[in-house]
Design brief:
six-stranded antiparallel β-sheet, six-stranded mixed β-sheet, 42% helix
């Protein structure tokens, strides 16, 4: 017991936990791989064939040597380690992802090395390193079984029966061709196949080390030495058991910041581990990842990873998949990938590509199958990385990493300093139609590798003749052979080798001693380690500068851990808005997406939890770096600059590693003879023996190192007993912690084990729950984002935020919908699952429609509700297909993914997203045809909840379609509604309108006479109105309408109630109230007016959370007030002087608040200047107070008349010289007022007197002249005649207060909308 005990207790700091051997089980013989068979069954099911015929597993179309047979874990030592239980299924699957493979003497049989990773449920990882070689099959049963299979195969494959194989067969067959021999030998084999009388049969066997840390180089060297010992002519010095026992029990993990040397069979092996303040261990050669993809492509894939997209790596070589996956994830420091991570996806787990969650997976490519044959369930959000052909496909429109070009430049320099080039890799292809984005021309994924030696050659343009040798040169340069051979080759190809010295370090001259007595292999390793750490430092320093101030925005709100964990879902723990407002503009597109990711959320959570428990290691290193950076440069508040800061610690980081490897800190015990019986440990050459389990299953009892850990363990046990009475709380707490920690992680990891359909269903069920939860969180976040802002703004004006935050949230909603629609698809069509479903729906509906029209010509589509003001507008049909057609007609959008996104945005803006999707899913026959039983869209209850969450988004107003597609043509309908009560609503003149919005104006449009329409209201009273439809480029949110006529004919006077304008695509309707006459000699004699609009909410809107509606926009001065001020009746409402002063203060305040908002969230300034409660309205009231306007039997006098007279008086006084003695500035002001008034009067536009007054106020506010003009008007003697004594204008103190208030606007740049100042150039 003691032996077993001490062996296991030492394990947490043991270098390796298990040594395992996988291969063929001679007892059970040849078994077809069940998992492959299961996969065939799934495939067949997916394609709608009868699954049972495919499920036999014995697929005769394939030659037996190519089929997949079951491998087994033949042995493992020790049997079990308690804190890292042996996962037999996973190890077997990952050691031999394709099962056993057979070869004959005619085939290539080089040993292969690959690594794998097992991620457990809690996110912790174990690494495996595998050396696979071929061993002769000695069992006669197996040879004869294979012989028989071949005879059956040859009998079967007569031409008559060559049926087309299922996609799985081709998948399985070509799986093996990846390491298949040259074509000539395989063709000879296809003829002869395997004949037990003349051929020798070989089968694959794998040696595997399972370790807690990724010491890849060390394990690779240990395993290859072990294999060499078996094949060598001379037996190794000690039995193999000694070496395995040594690495399992006697080699410790190096301590942090230390190096370790231990002994393999032939040579010593060295490894080192970074110290606590350094970046964590990463032993996979990043240089290889960079050479495979090229710096540019690698940075793009890295960006996709940061934004948690789906990343699929594709290569024929498992080790490459592992190198790229591990490379990218180690660059994420200080963040960690939080989702599904399977760098090597076994053939039997291919259905995992269906997962509707972010993932990083590696798929083995098969020789001869190209990318187009690969059926991927969803591609809308996929980053596809073809490692072998050095090219990548990127999702549409994702943001670039900040300072990308400078980052790539810096990385290239690091690579060059090690003699590597960064320009491999084809330029990335975005998934758009060819040529639609500049710079993404799909180039041939040919071998675009460049090395120093090949540079001149490429510049020469002669590299056409070098397709094959080029690779050979590269491989030689990368150091597979000596320099002489390299030079011989270069002579042959006519290349001059530049900077060979720079490459000398990289060339392994096997066996020769390098500097300092190190072998070339050690040199290579040191060089790799130095390059690795430098490349990682470059990335790490990007994050240190980007997030240098992140702590300031972490919201610490909970008093203790428990309360934080319980309320975590409701807590807001990072102030995103403030953080973004503090960042340089070019970073925002990336950062606004990134701070929404799970990895960032987890990072912030770790930060908050670090107040109560030990800091997570990555966070500790990161925080220490930020503190250090602060110490060195006390950063000025100007840190918002987006200038690139290079990494300053490249040299130090490389030196640390070099010093550790130069001076070995610890040498492990040498392998030694074990307590074995004589005769044990002998074996036949070339065969890996069955090792003696009794000596390998328990560790040594007497070594001091294990003894030390055993005492530490006893100390721990004592401590544990003391704290036993706290255990209950702790257990609860631990449970809490676990739950809380796994909160955001819908599904951490697929289980690599028995995959019965039940397990698959269970996994999919988890996906469905995860999707629903994500939908709940996202819609809530979108609501809070809008509502939060709106609540703040209820007091005033504009309530729609646009801008980055909203765009990011909507983009992530589009992504979620794509993932939901691609979950459980039967057959994939097109890149966007949602759009292809919509197209199916459209085709069906249009067919039905045609049938219906053939039967009865009346269409039966639900009409939208009408209210009084909507009488004049023909109602828009709520019609899913109509929205699709709008988007199909937009030539700006080139791809299906783009169309789906545009459709989602349009539906959101129309508040119909939930309704449309409900309608789409109501065609159940269609859903059944397109989706498997387990798909999210076929889980009734979840689907209902999902639509309900989307319905909640109707509570806010989005302009996410109008504001994004700014260049499209949009049809607008304009309806001019005259006031009903007066009979002469008809006019003989020719009306025109000009509609303006935030993005521009429509230009003047004449409305043809013949568009008078009659409508009848509920009481059948006829109403006439003028309606016209016109098309122009998207105007954005509408702000003003100019309305006028040419004063022709007899009935040239026109009393207009309001103008309605509707965007025919989004259905947004705006009402522009008028309530005044247009005509000479009536009202103020105006032939044109500028009207200010408001968005109308259709009454009777479904009860869709209307209680929390957005506050209305400001509108044109309301009819009643307008009429009362210009006193058509003279008996209107008269505000008190206090109310007037308050109104002026309020209107000026609103203008100031407007300028204090971030630019993207400001509303329309026109509304604040000329709408209701605006500056013009308030000043109009001020001037009307005590104004003697209505005279008996005389025509009405307007404020403008007073201004005109005052100006006339000043001009005459000026000519008489009365003003000469006044101070000079006053004279200047006087001239400016006269100049402005005369310019307004001489404008060609027919604006009335009130319009002119409005114009004067706007220009005065813009040019900061209002406060100077007021005293001139007050001083004018005319005031006594035209105002009563009580008038505000005659009260000195009030006027001076008003001047003070108006001066506060001077700090802001007021720009006037074009529609206001048309025809006036001042």
């Amino acid at each position: 017991i003691e032996a077993g005990m001490s062996g296991s207790s030492a394990a947490p700091c043991r270098f390796a936990h298990y040594f395992a051997i996988c291969g063929i089980d001679t007892e059970t013989g040849l078994e077809p791989d069940e998992l492959a068979a299961l996969y065939q069954w799934l495939e067949a099911d997916r394609q709608g064939r009868d699954p049972d015929t495919a499920a036999t597993g014995e697929n005769f179309e394939q030659s037996p040597l190519k089929r997949t047979f079951k491998s087994k874990v033949l042995a493992r030592y020790p049997q079990n380690v308690e804190w890292n239980p042996f996962d037999q299924d996973a190890v077997n699957m990952l050691c031999m992802p394709k099962g056993l493979s057979f070869r004959t003497q005619a085939d290539q049989r080089d040993p292969q090395f690959h690594s794998f990773i097992i991620t457990r449920e809690d996110g912790s990882r174990t690494y495996g390193f595998v050396h696979t070689f071929y061993e002769e099959v000695t069992s006669p049963q197996i040879c004869s079984a294979m012989h028989t299979l071949y005879q059956m195969h040859n009998a079967e494959s007569t031409p008559s029966s060559s049926s087309s194989s299922s996609s799985m067969d081709s998948l399985a067959s070509s799986l093996d061709e990846a390491d298949s021999p040259t074509s000539s030998s395989s063709s000879s084999r296809r003829a002869g196949g395997y004949d037990s009388s003349r051929d020798t049969l070989y089968v694959s066997k794998a040696l595997c080390l399972i370790t807690p840390m990724p010491f890849m180089h060390a394990c690779r060297r240990f395993l290859s030495q072990l294999h060499r010992a078996v094949t060598a002519d001379v037996a190794p010095p000690l039995p193999l058991e000694s070496y395995v026992h040594n690495i399992l029990y006697e080699v410790p993990l190096p301590a942090p910041g230390r190096s370790l040397k231990f002994h393999g069979v032939y040579e010593p092996i060295v490894c080192q581990r970074p110290g606590l303040g350094e970046l964590q261990l990463a032993d996979f050669p990043l240089a290889e990842a960079f050479t495979l993809l090229g710096a540019e492509n690698l940075v793009q894939v890295f960006t996709c990873t940061l934004l948690e997209m789906q990343i699929l790596l594709y290569s024929h070589d498992y080790q490459r998949l592992m190198t790229v996956a591990e490379g990218i994830t180690t660059l994420l420091f200080p963040f960690q990938w939080q989702h599904v991570y399977v760098p090597i996806l076994p053939a039997s787990l291919l259905h995992f590509l269906d997962a509707p969650v972010p993932y990083l997976m590696g798929l083995q490519s098969k020789e001869g199958t190209d990318r187009s044959k690969l059926e991927l369930p969803q591609e809308a959000n996929l980053c596809f990385v073809d490692v072998d052909n050095h090219y990548i496909e990127l999702p549409e429109d994702f943001p670039q990493f900040p300072n990308k070009t400078e980052l790539i430049q810096e990385l290239s320099e690091v690579l060059l300093s090690f003699g590597l080039s960064a320009n491999t890799g084809a330029p990335p292809r975005t998934r758009t139609s060819p040529g639609s984005t500049p710079g993404s021309t799909p180039s041939t994924p040919g071998r675009e590798r460049k090395t120093v030696a090949l540079r001149q050659l490429e510049d020469d343009g002669r590299n056409g003749n070098l397709a094959v040798e080029e690779l050979a040169v590269l491989e030689l340069l990368q150091g597979n052979a000596t320099l002489e051979r390299l030079q011989a080759l270069t002579k042959r190809t006519g290349v001059t080798v530049a900077r060979v010295d720079a490459l000398r370090a990289g060339v392994k001259a096997q066996g020769t001693e390098g500097q300092g007595g190190r072998t070339a292999a050690e040199e290579e390793e040191l060089r790799n380690a130095k390059l690795n750490v430098q490349l990682r430092e470059v990335f790490a320093s990007r994050f240190t500068t980007m997030f240098a101030d992140y702590e300031a925005f972490v919201i610490q709100s909970a008093p203790d851990l428990e309360s934080w964990l319980t309320n975590r879902e409701q807590m807001h723990n990072f102030d995103k808005a403030s953080f973004l407002s503090d960042q340089p503009e070019p970073y925002l597109p990336f950062l606004s997406h990134f701070i929404e990711t799970q990895m960032f959320a987890t990072f912030v959570d770790n930060k908050i939890m670090s107040q109560w428990e030990e800091k997570e290691p990555l966070l500790r290193v990161f925080d220490a770096r930020i503190d250090k950076a602060r110490l060195y440069n006390v950063r000025a508040p100007s840190h918002r600059s987006s200038s690139y800061q290079r990494c300053s610690i490249l040299k130090e980081s490389a030196q640390a590693i070099e010093q550790r490897l130069m001076k070995i800190d610890h040498t492990a015990i040498h392998p030694h003879l074990l307590d074995m019986k004589i005769g044990q440990g002998k074996y036949a050459q070339g065969f890996f023996p069955k090792l003696q389990a009794d000596v390998l299953n328990a560790g040594p009892t007497n070594n001091k190192w294990s003894h030390r850990t055993a005492t530490a363990q006893r100390r721990k046990d004592r401590h544990r007993q003391q704290t036993e009475h706290l255990a209950l709380d702790n257990d609860l707490k631990e449970k809490y912690m676990q739950e809380a920690r796994s909160l955001g992680k819908n599904l951490r990891q697929p289980k690599l084990s028995d995959l019965s359909p039940a397990v698959i269903a269970q996994t999919n069920w988890k996906f469905v729950e995860g999707l629903l939860k994500e939908c709940r969180m996202k819609t809530k976040r979108m609501l809070v984002e809008k509502m939060g802002r709106e609540a703040v703004e209820l007091g005033h004006g504009e309530a729609n935020i646009t801008g980055l935050e909203e765009n990011t949230l909507i983009a992530s909603l589009c992504d979620l919908l794509e993932r939901i629609w691609s979950h459980g698809l039967q057959v994939k069509q097109g890149k966007s699952a949602l759009w292809s479903h919509l197209l199916h729906y459209q085709a069906r509906e249009e067919k039905l429609e045609q049938q219906q029209q053939a039967e009865s010509p009346v269409s039966q589509v639900p009409e939208r509700r009408k209210s009084d003001c909507f009488l004049a507008m023909p109602s828009l049909r709520v019609f899913l297909i109509q929205d699709m057609r709008h988007i199909q007609s937009m030539s700006e959008i080139k791809t299906d993914v783009g169309r789906a996104r545009a459709w989602i945005r349009l539906s959101l803006e129309k508040k119909l997203l939930s309704q449309h999707l409900k309608q789409l899913l109501s065609r159940q026959a269609l859903t059944k045809k397109l989706y498997k039983r387990y798909a999210f869209l076929r889980c009734e209850e979840e689907k209902e909840q999902f639509l309900f969450h989307l319905l909640s988004l109707n509570a806010v107003d989005y302009f996410c379609f109008t504001s994004v597609f700014t260049t499209i043509m949009i049809p607008y309908r304009v309806v001019i509604i005259p006031i009903k009560k007066l009979s002469n609503a008809m006019t003989t003149s020719n009306p025109w309108v000009c509609v303006s919005g935030e993005l521009g104006d429509s230009g003047i449009m004449q409305i043809p006479k013949n568009v008078l329409e009659m409508t009848f209201d509920s009481a059948f009273r006829p109403h006439t109105h003028i309606s016209a439809l016109f098309k122009c480029q998207n105007l954005g949110k509408l702000t003003t309408v100019q309305l006028g006529h040419d004063n022709a004919g007899l009935l040239a006077k026109w009393l207009v109630d309001c103008v309605m304008v509707r965007n025919e695509i989004t259905g947004h309707t705006y009402r522009f109230p008028c309530g005044r006459w247009l005509g000479k000699g009536v009202d103020d004699g105006s032939l044109e007016r500028v009207l200010i609009g408001e968005l109308v909410v259709p009454s009777g809107e479904e009860d869709s959370g209307r209680g929390c509606r957005t506050p209305p926009l400001q509108r044109s001065p309301s009819q009643t007030r307008r009429i009362s001020i210009t006193s058509l009746s003279g008996r209107g409402y008269k505000p008190t002087s206090a109310q007037i002063q308050e109104a002026i203060g309020e209107s000026v305040n609103n203008i100031i608040k407007h300028f204090h908002k971030p630019e993207k969230e400001r509303g329309s300034l026109t509304v604040l200047l000329c709408g209701e409660n605006s500056l013009v309205a308030a000043l109009e009231q001020f001037f009307h107070h005590g104004f003697k306007s209505a005279r008996l039997f005389q025509k009405t006098v307007f404020v403008w008349d007073f201004v005109e007279k005052a100006v006339a008086y000043m001009e005459s006084a000026d000519q008489m010289g009365d003003l000469q003695e006044t101070a000079e500035p006053l004279g200047m002001t006087c001239q400016s007022l006269c100049h402005y008034v005369n310019s307004i009067n001489s404008t060609p536009r027919n604006i009335g007197k009130d319009g002119k007054f409005q114009l004067l106020v706007c220009l005065g506010a813009r040019d900061r002249l209002l406060p100077q003009w007021l005293p001139l008007l007050v001083e004018c003697p005319l005031i006594l005649r035209m105002y009563e004594d009580t008038a505000l204008l005659r009260d000195r103190s009030t006027v001076s207060t008003l001047i003070g208030v108006l001066e506060t606007i001077h700090d802001f740049p007021i720009t006037l909308e074009a529609s206001l100042v048309k025809g006036i150039d001042l």
